[in-house]
């Protein structure tokens, strides 16, 4: 999940952006109260997007940026395409297995275990894009990503996904369908996974009908990873005025997504093309702004916590999900029976409920930061 760059060509702004995405993810996953949260920490119910909806796409974009940087290092070390393909497949497979383990933990109720998930999606998209980059790259004179093939593939992913949603009738529902019940992603997930193995926490009319990390909607997610790989290639080749180009291109992509919203709605849960465009644009603007702050204005020390998080993102993610059930166990006497409830009650003595909930989430971010900081100081990094 982390970028495998040597210290000499490490893109510090990329590490920081990856770390910020993990930090904001933890703020979403660890509130003091699930019913008391600010709107920016909550996902959009369906159409539109909130700030927290940018977190997963930004992280996926960062994974893409690191792909050509990692491949170049390994190729320069003498690894063959076969060795690299084996490494990519092993890494992708381990991510999928870790995601399944976290879905099963701590109950291990196989009959009702959710199959899709964030790590599963990361593993599949990373594997698909990394293999594509590897086998279309040029090795003459050193590793060079095939940018033309990348742009063609990126365009094909978004156009094919849009064509499916808009023009191919869903059995029993017709076309176009962008809703949580009758869209292609929801239909396929219910057909293949069955609702016992889907995301149960966002029902529609009391029924489980879709999964936000479902099977079919993983296809357009590859567009975010692939665009990131193209940005990583541009970094390697020394593109002129990179910061300005990232800011301008990002702004244009976000504007295009908003302009197309009435025709192709921006929906994270089925990862519409407009959502992909908007979040790619947001990722570009964020990376450009951080590169400006870090490389031109020397403000890296201000982002030290994010740098620590960004150096060990898989460990941070695993710790968060392993600890989450523990803070909800009944350790104490009612009414504050769990650590989460006790924390919310404690902060609510000084702050209004939503701020108290955010304070608890920030406490969890700090708690997870401490073991990450120890690992950082000792150069212990969990890599696949």
TrEMBL record:
Q: Which InterPro entries match?
A: DUF5009 (IPR032176)
Q: Give every DUF5009 domain span.
A: 13-137
Could you list this entry's UniProt keywords, alphabetically sorted: Membrane, Transmembrane, Transmembrane helix
Q: Name one Pfam family in it.
A: DUF5009
Which superkingdom does the taxonomy of this entry point to?
A: Bacteria
Keyword Ribosomal protein included in the entry's annotation: no
Q: Which positions are tagged coiled coil?
A: none
User: TM spans, by residue?
Assistant: 12-29, 49-67, 88-106, 118-137, 149-170, 214-231, 243-264, 270-294, 314-332, 355-376
What protein name is recorded for this chain? DUF5009 domain-containing protein
This protein's species is Asticcacaulis biprosthecium C19
Q: What is the lineage of its organism?
A: Bacteria, Pseudomonadati, Pseudomonadota, Alphaproteobacteria, Caulobacterales
């Amino acid at each position: 999940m982390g970028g495998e760059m040597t210290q000499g060509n490490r893109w510090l702004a990329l590490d920081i952006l990856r770390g910020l995405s993990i930090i904001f993810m933890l703020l979403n996953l660890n509130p003091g109260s699930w019913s008391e949260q600010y709107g920016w920490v909550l996902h959009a119910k369906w159409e539109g997007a909130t700030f927290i909806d940018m977190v997963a796409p930004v992280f996926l974009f960062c994974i893409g940026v690191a792909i050509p940087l990692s491949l170049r290092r390994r190729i320069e070390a003498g690894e063959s395409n076969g060795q690299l393909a084996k490494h990519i497949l092993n890494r992708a497979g381990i991510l999928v297995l870790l995601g399944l383990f976290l879905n099963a933990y701590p109950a291990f109720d196989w009959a009702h275990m959710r199959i899709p998930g964030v790590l599963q999606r990361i593993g599949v998209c990373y594997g698909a894009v990394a293999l594509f980059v590897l086998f279309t790259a040029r090795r003459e004179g050193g590793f060079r990503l095939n940018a033309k093939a990348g742009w063609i593939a990126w365009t094909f992913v978004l156009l094919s996904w849009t064509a499916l949603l808009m023009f191919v009738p869903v059995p029993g529902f017709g076309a176009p369908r962008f809703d949580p019940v009758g869209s292609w992603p929801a239909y396929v997930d219910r057909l293949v996974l069955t609702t016992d193995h889907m995301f149960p926490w966002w029902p529609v009319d009391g029924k489980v009908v879709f999964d936000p990390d479902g099977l079919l909607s993983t296809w357009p997610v590859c567009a975010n990873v692939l665009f990131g790989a193209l940005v990583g290639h541009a970094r390697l080749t020394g593109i002129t005025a990179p910061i300005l180009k990232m800011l301008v291109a990002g702004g244009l992509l976000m504007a295009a997504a908003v302009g197309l919203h009435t025709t192709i709605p921006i929906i994270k849960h089925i990862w519409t093309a407009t959502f992909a465009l908007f979040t790619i644009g947001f990722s570009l603007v964020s990376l450009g702004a951080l590169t400006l702050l870090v490389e031109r204005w020397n403000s890296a020390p201000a982002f030290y916590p994010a740098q620590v998080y960004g150096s060990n993102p898989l460990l941070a993610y695993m710790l968060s999900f392993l600890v989450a059930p523990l803070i909800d166990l009944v350790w104490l006497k009612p009414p504050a029976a769990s650590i989460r409830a006790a924390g919310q009650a404690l902060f609510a003595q000084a702050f209004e409920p939503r701020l108290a909930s955010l304070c608890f989430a920030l406490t969890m971010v700090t708690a997870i930061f401490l073991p990450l900081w120890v690992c950082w100081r000792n150069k212990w990094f969990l890599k696949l």
